[in-house]
Amino acid sequence: MNTAECPECGGAISFKSAPVLHELIRCADCGAELEVTSLEPIALALAPTEEEDWGE
Amino acid sequence: MKVALICSLVRPEEKLLIEAFTKRDVAVDVVDDRNLAFDLDDLSHWQQYDAVVERCVSQSRALYVQRIMSLAGVRAVNTHDVIENCGDKFITTQLMLQHGVPTTKVLMAFTPESALQAIGQLGYPCVLKPVVGSWGRGVVRVNDRDAAEAVLNLRDELGGYQQHIYYIQELINKPQRDIRSFVVGDRAIAAIYRTSSHWITNTHLGGKASNCPVTPELDAISVAAAKAVGGGIVAVDLFEDPQRGLLVNEVNHTMEFRNSVPATGVDIPGAMVEYVVRLCA
């Protein structure tokens, strides 16, 4: 099952396709930006905070 | 063929690139830049790759990674020169001027007093930007002398030395939009309008993306800007000035395109992968 729990709000997150390690996603319930930190089982953590030199 | 895709996080862009490399039968190792530790005396591990494609969200990491790849003798996309030239707004402006690419008027100053004088010389309203930064961070519109003094005072109080380098840009009377063109190699493969009711049209700040036709004029200035910073794969941000026509604002070395593929119908990640494959041929 491609599902996981949001570490911020506890909401259920389901993936339409298999996630990629370190993929960035957003929780539909609370809007938190999350990182996929493990695939089997799928685990999520809050994404790193934007730093001064981040960008394009 | 085998490439390393070095990234900080797998955003939609990196996911699309992984899919595009896989579709093209190119083996791709996704490398998290947070786990990297380079032995500068032995970089042989990296020589297994035909190319290292940099997709770091941190400009500093991107620059060092590709400098290290240069040391390892590994093909880099983009090169460290391009990252350096795009990552500092002054250097980008300098290169546009040196190569005769139409760009905005910019003044530079190093103290609040000289910056205030320069702003007065350029005229209100104008724009103050950090020389390093992205996604509209720290970009402010200065409407009058009171605002200028407030911003300059704040910047002066902040610790980082880069806060004390004042990049002062004319405010272009743009039609509530700017243009972003995507240059891959020697042509602009697609472009979008970024439209917003706010004076900053960055999509990170709510600007909406829609297709912008790549006219010969847009292609020419975009490719000229890309060549001026060293070529490769870049996104060029442009203003439409009512009198002067297209003007280059900035050039981005690790371009984001998640909103631009559906808006333009152009397979941007596919074109990026083809460029890397051609480079390695």
Topology:
The complex is a heterodimer of chains A (56) and B (281).
Chain A: E1 3-5, E2 12-14, E3 24-26, E4 33-39, E5 42-46
Antiparallel strand pairs in A: 1-2, 3-4, 4-5
Chain B: E1 2-7, H1 12-23, E2 27-32, E3 51-55, H2 59-72, E4 76-77, H3 80-87, H4 89-98, E5 106-109, H5 112-122, E6 126-129, E7 140-142, H6 145-157, E8 166-170, E9 177-184, E10 187-195, E11 208-211, H7 216-229, E12 233-241, E13 245-252, H8 260-264, H9 268-280
Parallel strand pairs in B: 1-2, 1-3, 3-4
Antiparallel strand pairs in B: 5-8, 6-7, 6-8, 9-10, 9-12, 10-11, 12-13
Helix pairs in contact in B: 1-9, 2-3, 3-4, 5-6
Short key terms for the protein model shown above:
heterodimer; A: 56 residues; mainly beta; three-stranded antiparallel beta sheet; two-stranded antiparallel sheet; 0% helix; B: 281 residues; alpha+beta; globular
Query: Largest beta sheet of chain B, briefly?
Result: 5 strands, antiparallel
- Uncertain residue segments of chain B: none
DSSP strand count of chain B: 13
Q: Tell me the distance between the termini of chain B.
A: 9 Å
Total helices of chain B: the number is: 9
| DSSP strand tally of chain A | 5
Structure write-up:
The complex is a heterodimer of chains A (56) and B (281). Chain A has strands spanning 3-5, 12-14, 24-26, 33-39, 42-46. With 56 residues, chain A is an all-beta fold. Helices cover 36% and strands 26% of the residues of chain B. In chain B, the strands form three sheets. Chain B has a five-stranded antiparallel sheet with strand order 11-10-9-12-13. Chain B has a four-stranded parallel sheet with strand order 2-1-3-4, sandwiched between helices. Chain B has a four-stranded antiparallel sheet with strand order 5-8-6-7, sandwiched between helices. In chain B, helix 1 (12-23) packs across helix 9 (268-280), helix 2 packs antiparallel against helix 3 and helix 5 packs antiparallel against helix 6. The interface between A and B is medium-sized, with 15 and 27 residues.
